[in-house]
Amino acid sequence: MTLIKSISGIRGTIGGVPGDNLTPIDTVKFAAAYGTWLKGENPGKEKLKVVIGRDARISGEMIQELVIRTLTGLGINVVKLDLSTTPTVEVAVPLEHADGGIILTASHNPKQWNALKLLNHKGEFLNAAQGARILELAAAEEFEFADVDHLGKVSLNEAYIDIHIDEVLKLSLVNAPAIKEARFRVVVDGVNSTGGIVIPRLLERLGVEVIKLYCEPDGHFPHNPEPLKEHLTDISELVVKEKADLGIVVDPDVDRLAFMSEDGEMFGEEYTLVACADYVLGRTPGNTVSNMSSTRALSDIARKHGGSYQASAVGEVNVVALMKETDAVIGGEGNGGIIYPELHYGRDALVGVALFLSLLAEKKVKVSELRAGYPAYFMSKKKIELTPQIDVDALLKEMEARYKHEKISTIDGVKIDFPENWVHLRKSNTEPIIRVYTEAKSQEEADVLADKIIAEIGGLVG
Fold first, then answer.
1. What is the pLDDT of residues 263-288, one digit of tens each?
2. How many domains does the chain have?
């Protein structure tokens, strides 16, 4: 059982011992720390407002009530969205003129996990300094709660999924008429979370015929919720069986997006951003950004459209910071996260679906044909489980020294760029693992490189 405190939020497994897991006590403590930090950021403001939403995890309702009652105990008003998505909460915060927001989700982690993902008044994730301050406040436990006459109030607003969809459909690059005319037939895997509500609803508004798979938001994930090929055999088979035009897969909080081609093959999670960027850059020339663990294909697409590409450290907050710095028109992460600033600075599967279908409708090609038109890179995503005895920093330093004659970046872990491929080693913000990502011109080459590096690290640990 695990409790991880990082700039990505407070994430842990439900149950067990306080301090080692995400127990009710830990939930209250970190919610109180966030509320206390928010009050410190807004001195003299009479009533603060925070938007709260959750995915469909089994523990979601419990964690939600603990967080809400803690904030109201601090005298903060709460807008409760209840079942929602991460991007929906991000959209709701500025529309509500709120001072912050919290999404209760452990994203792609299995059902025993949950988390508090913290937002500022813009509906964007906190930066490292802000996250560190909240951890300090939680450790000190110096909280001052409101007296009985100044408790916060809770208001329920379940309209934001539809409001979010409205905002997506208003975007000038979303070609709703072309999508409707294409009469797409789409299978949706909502992994029995809130994607099963919002993605079919968006598609129906676009005139798409929807075949639902695992769209009951009961939190009982039918497969590992990370949208990787090995977890998606059911939708692969159903797309072929139903003769659908494509399949759409999201993670439990709907900020990651993957597509399945009409032949049941993965379009490639990395290529979600590549395709959306191709569409956007072809109509609004500009720059693009992704993180260091993302495919080189995005750089190729940016150059094709006369723009520039830059890579940030892993983490949405880092991607967003670099996007703002470079005035990027689209960006995101290779895990299927699309960030389109025209709507908001956050990964958003709804925006990704709308842009991708616009591209597909205008090109009038099959999904497999679209994919074949992009540069061919293959990625291996592996991991090394960590034990408390492993000194990760020392390991990464050793790997950096071993490959000092190659092009190396240490912005985030160690990335080694070889002429024909690359490897990125970094400690995860969300799990007790070292992530080992490689990319090459063939899947075999990517896998061989990953296994080679893992063996080298194993030798160092052994």
1. 999 999 899 999 999 999 999 999 99
2. 3
Q: How many CA atoms lie within 13 A of 185 on its CB side?
A: 9
Least confident of 3-17, 212-226, 446-460: 3-17
Using DSSP bridges, classify how beta strands 154-156 and 77-83 pair: parallel, antiparallel or unpaired.
parallel
**Structure tokens belonging to residue 384:** 């090394």
- The beta strands (E) that lie in 95-184 are given as 100-104, 113-119, 154-156
Judge whether residue 177 has pLDDT over 60.
yes
195-205 and 160-169 helices cross at what angle (nearest 10)?
40
Q: Identify which of 144, 70, 150 has the alpha carbon closest to the alpha carbon of residue 102.
A: 70
- CB-CB contact of 392 with 435 (8 Å): no
Residue found under tokens 């697409």: 301
User: Do 410 and 336 lie in a common domain?
Assistant: no
Last residue within a domain, chosen from 102, 128, 158: 158
Amino acid of residue 14: I
Could you say which of 372, 405, 422 is where a domain stops? 372
**126 neighbors 40 (Cβ within 8 angstroms):** no
Which two tokens mark 76? 């903060």
Residue 305, classed as helix, strand or coil, is coil
Mean pLDDT of 94-98: 98
DSSP string covering 179-192: HHHHT-EEEEE-TT
Q: Which of 107, 193, 236, 358 is catalytic?
A: 107
Single-letter amino acid code for the residue at 343: L
Rounded distance, CA 58 to CA 317, Å?
A: 27
Nearest to 415 by CA among 317, 277, 313: 313
Distance in angstroms (rounded) separating the CA atoms of residues 94 and 105: 20
Pairing outcome for strands 287-291 and 257-260:
unpaired
For residue 32, give both structure tokens: 């109180």
What is d(CA 204, CA 215) in angstroms, rounded to the nearest whole number? 14
345 and 410 fall within a common domain: no
Residue 84 bears catalytic tag: no
Same domain, 29 and 110: yes
Tokens of 338: 């699309």
User: 274 and 295 in contact (C-beta within 8 Å)?
Assistant: yes
Position 77 scores a pLDDT of 98
How many Å apart are CA 294 and CA 354, to the nearest integer? 22
As a whole number of angstroms, the distance between CA 285 and CA 281 comes to 5
